[in-house]
Amino acid sequence: MPEPARADLGALSDLCTPWCIHVVATLRIAEHIAAGKVEIGDIATAAGCDSDALHRVLGHLVGKGVFEETAPGQFALNDAARGLLDPGARLGLDLEGIGGRMAYAWGTLPNYVRTGAPAYHEHFGLPFWEDLDAHPAVAASFDALIGPAGHGAFNPDFQITGGWDPVRTIVDVGGGTGSMLAEILRTRPGVFGTLVDLPRTVARSGATFQAAGVAGRVTTVGQSFFDPLPAGRDIYLLRGVLNDWPDREATAILSRCAEAARPAGRVVVLKSVGPEDAPKNLEIEMVLLGGKHRTVAEFRELARQAALEVQAAGRQPLGYFVVESRPV
Ligand SMILES: C[S@@+](CC[C@H](N)C(=O)[O-])C[C@H]1O[C@@H](n2cnc3c(N)ncnc32)[C@H](O)[C@@H]1O
Predict the structure, then answer these.
(1) Residues 158-182: pLDDT tens digits?
(2) Mind listing the pLDDT tens digit for each residue in 117-141?
(3) What is the DSSP string of 173-235?
(4) Ligand 1 interacting residues, C-beta cut-off 6 A
(5) What does pTM read for this prediction?
(6) What's the gap in Å between 246 CA and the centre of ligand 1?
(7) For a FRET experiment, which of 26, 62, 129, 312 has its CA 20 to 30 Å from that of 323?
């Protein structure tokens, strides 16, 4: 067997290219070129930046296969550069919004690794959620990134024990601007839903429910999920929420769900828990928030502390790894 090629540490640790990509996305360079600016001077004027510095950035990216230099100092889009026109890509890259929070947060990785706790506040002055509270435009870009603009269409297809027929009510806890709940209600006409998220985020949900034709079956509640939740519903959905939080906070969220679900409701977790043999990847939630994806065994222990018992856990044919728990 031939030996695998040795990884090139110099190339792997070179930060120049990622920063160039962030910079051109932030300055909307692809948009200016798409709008007809070709000469570097014209592009720089349109972007409000230094022409020589931009030329060097674009020259570097051309060497990496992003943009074309069709003649000295003249630039055009290629397929890779056209990817920068995608609004979802821009949300994740724009240094002025959540893209910048994620990019700079990697600079706090050394202290995250030293302590196991997020060091986001050391760079931004506040922990992640408080930083978003203090910067409404960044919070809006975060909400957009986790919604359809950033993450694409939401898949409402997951099964629960006994099927959906007996389910009348569902609470999407930390449900963002409502895209998942809207899809669940659109595909299950007998179900009524409640969206729980921070006030600024639920305030952005109206158009989503209207567009899905489900506004008449939805209630929105702007509150913290660390406070008591609307009680007595059939399903409490936590999709991509627990992986944002360290164990203590994740247990508190599960406790609020268990209290509200008692006696007959269920807590369903998506996109936060995986199988025992899942690879231990490094995830952006770790540096932003100290959260992590957990194995079923790790989740079971948090659930136990929250007075929940895991009833079913596994990968379903349509994609989700679903964990279902009941209050004990
Ligand atoms: C990673 S997003 C997941 C959103 C959605 N469930 C999904 O699957 O796309 C986490 C959500 O938790 C919300 N959140 C954060 N802290 C919260 C709190 N204390 N109370 C309620 N919601 C909170 C955020 O606003 C965000 O919408």
Answers:
(1) 999 999 999 999 999 999 999 999 9
(2) 999 999 999 999 999 999 999 999 9
(3) ET-TTSHHHHHHHHH-TT-EEEEEE-HHHHTT-HHHHHHHT-GGGEEEEES-TTSPPPPS-SE
(4) 129, 146, 174-176, 180, 197-198, 201, 224-226, 239-241, 244
(5) 0.94
(6) 14
(7) 129
